[in-house]
Design goal:
Elements (H helix, E strand, L loop, with lengths): L4 E6 L3 E8 L5 E8 L8 E5 L11 H9 L3 E5 L17 H19 L3 E7 L2 H11 L3 E7 L5 H9 L3 H6 L6 E4 L2 E4 H10 L5 H8 L6 E6 L7 H9 L4 E6 L10 H16 L11 E4 L1 H18 L6 H12 L6 H14 L7 E5 L5 H16 L8 E6 L2 H21 L1 H4 L3 E6 L25 E6 L9 H11 E12 L6 H10 L4 H22 L8 H10 L5 E6 L4 E7 L1
Parallel strand pairs: 1-12, 4-5, 4-6, 6-7, 7-10, 10-11, 13-14, 13-16, 14-15, 16-17
Antiparallel strand pairs: 2-3, 3-5, 8-9, 17-19, 18-19
Helix pairs in contact: 2-3, 7-8, 11-18, 12-13, 13-14, 17-18
């Protein structure tokens, strides 16, 4: 039975930063989230971070639980991203399990709660199973899209058995696991030593858990096998398995599924308490409290996050791998959608590709024009395509690939296409001044006012310091009636969905699997930069607000790229 929700917002929630002694003298840094003492239901919740994420990602769930009577402690693992001590290269699952037990000891000693509930997500669920098997003070366990067979999950992601091959004697050295360079010898050997890599190890832990456990499985999860989850949960007397419909492994990318998950978790945590009844009405934290705390924590992460390479170097490396997925249907469909929104290229049009990357939009433009030359008499014979990008490597790729197609096209149809011009220029969009009307210091886009007919800017605004200034510049250069199409990955997107189809299709090609692994690693780094406030993924509403602030009026919005990107079309 789903409890009714109340509209009242809880404002009396505050967060205190705490430091907890961990293994080998390392400090575990967390936030204690709590409301009024008289509202506490005597249950304490420990929130473990998801692999590659920080305690900030658990803020929304933590405040929801506090609004409904709990004290919550969310923390960063040691040897992991975030504020706790240690280097990510030394991360291990047994080490993360020890962190959980150290935080458990702290909560039990300082608060003496009636019950301590452990909530985990994805890979951290494997640690939760082990911690619950070791310490009976954990009264309830929640595993959200929990991984129960790490060896198989990694094989599903990369289409090769990285753990099994290592255990057979192959030396990997440092290996990229979803965006983070991990010492494979330390990571995998610790997994094997503690029996945490296989389904058998999870089953062994599960049979020792005699307390209530809730495992939530995403119906569209492509990394975790539902049958294996069934085996694990069935071995626990108080085990429950619930399926989250219409959700991938990254549940947050579907707001409805995320809200449902949050309520299911809170309901399970409340069961058996004096305040729980079937007609219990959930209360919600005031949004302004969440926003304020999120901003505070994001600013802290932004200050401590060490960028070890320049943006130019990062994107050069990223684009060098991006060709891996250009044959994936979600990627092709995305650029076909962009092309349709840009509209027909007319005679003497100027088309700007602002953030051309490796030039895929220009290639699509050439192919569409090539097809039109054979079927339409009104096809533009003279137009200009102008590509801008931060990276010399991206521009070089764009030029090489596009020029090869354009040269053949013009050779075959010279009389009808001799006037087509493709030009390229390096440009750092972060140098655009805040006052892009002309008075501020900085660089304007290299075009006169009202000189451009169409602009494509694919997935660029997320990576800029001042996206409104960038959008304002696009409006300046557009002619009246000109069209701009901009896009951004959506908040809480599941970037692994974008690559799964291609990886599966080319599973027999070892080189493709290696490139896909590197690309997934780069995607993980992008997500971490987004979490740290260096990048920003924007909702449809945020993109529209951004463009409105830049002076655009009227818009059309769409979802594309495997439903992971928001696309907006505006006219001047």
């Amino acid at each position: 039975m789903i409890a009714d929700t109340e509209t009242s917002d809880v404002e009396e929630i505050h967060s205190s930063r705490v430091s907890i002694p961990g293994a080998e003298g390392r400090l575990i840094v967390g936030y204690l989230d709590e409301g009024r003492e008289e509202d506490w239901n005597s249950r304490f919740v420990l929130l473990t971070p998801k692999y590659g994420e920080t305690k900030k990602n658990n803020l929304r769930l933590a405040y929801f639980l506090v609004a409904n009577g709990f004290k919550v402690l969310r923390f960063d693992h040691t040897n992991h991203v975030g504020e706790s001590d240690g280097e990510m290269a030394r991360f291990t699952l047994p080490g993360a399990t020890k962190d959980i037990l150290d935080v458990l000891e702290y909560a039990d000693k300082h608060f003496e709660p009636e019950e301590i509930v452990l909530i985990s997500n994805s890979l951290s669920a494997r640690c939760a199973y082990r911690a619950a098997a070791l310490d009976s003070r954990i009264s309830r366990v929640v595993c959200v899209v929990g991984v129960v067979n790490l060896q198989q999950t990694i094989q599903n992601i990369y289409q090769k058995d990285i753990i099994g091959t290592f255990l057979e004697g192959k030396e990997w050295g440092k290996i990229d696991i979803l965006g983070f360079d991990i010492d494979s010898a330390n990571f995998i050997s610790k997994l094997a030593e503690h029996n945490m890599h296989s389904l058998e190890g999870t089953l062994h832990d599960a049979c020792k858990i005699d307390r209530p456990l809730l495992h939530l499985h995403a119906a569209k999860d492509i990394w975790v096998d539902r049958g294996e989850v069934d085996q694990v949960v069935q071995g626990i007397p108080g085990g429950q398995l619930l399926e989250i419909s219409d959700a991938y492994h990254e549940i947050g990318e579907n707001p409805e599924a995320a809200n449902n998950t949050m309520e299911q978790v809170a309901r399970f945590c409340l069961e058996g308490s004096q305040r729980w009844s079937q007609d219990f009405r959930f209360r919600h934290p005031a949004k302004k409290k969440i926003f304020a705390q999120n901003r505070l924590e994001r600013n802290r992460l932004k200050q401590i996050y060490a960028v070890k390479e320049s943006e130019n170097d990062f994107w050069n490396g990223y684009l060098g791998k991006f060709g891996t997925i250009e044959q994936a249907s979600v990627y092709i469909d995305y650029f076909e959608k962009i092309g349709a929104l840009i509209g027909t290229i007319h005679e003497r049009d100027v088309v700007v590709d602002a953030g051309c990357g490796n030039g895929f939009f220009g290639l699509c433009l050439l192919h569409s024009m090539e097809s039109a030359l054979g079927t339409r008499s009104d096809c533009a014979r003279r137009f200009v395509y102008y590509a801008l990008d931060l990276t010399p490597g991206g521009l070089a790729q764009a030029y090489s690939r596009q020029n090869q197609v354009k040269s053949k096209w013009i050779a075959d149809t010279y009389e009808r296409a001799a006037g087509v011009t493709f030009a390229y220029q390096r440009f750092d969009f972060d140098t655009i001044p805040e006052d892009s009307g002309g008075k501020g210091a900085g660089c304007k886009l290299p075009f006169a006012d009202n000189s451009v007919d169409k602009v494509c800017s694919s997935l660029v605004v997320s990576y800029l310091r001042d996206p409104v200034a960038f959008a304002r510049e696009l409006r300046r250069i557009l002619k009246p009636g000109g069209v701009a199409v901009l896009s951004s990955m959506k908040p809480d997107c599941d970037m692994t969905v974008l690559y799964h189809e291609f990886i599966s299709a080319d599973a027999e090609k070892e080189e493709s699997a290696d490139n896909a692994q590197k690309l997934l690693g780069a995607a993980g780094k992008i997500k971490l930069k987004e979490q740290s406030g260096i990048y920003g993924f924007y909702s449809e509403e945020e993109l529209i607000s951004m463009l409105t602030s830049a002076g655009f009026h009227g818009h059309e919005s769409f979802r594309s790229l495997g439903n992971q990107a928001n696309v907006i079309r505006v006219t001047k």
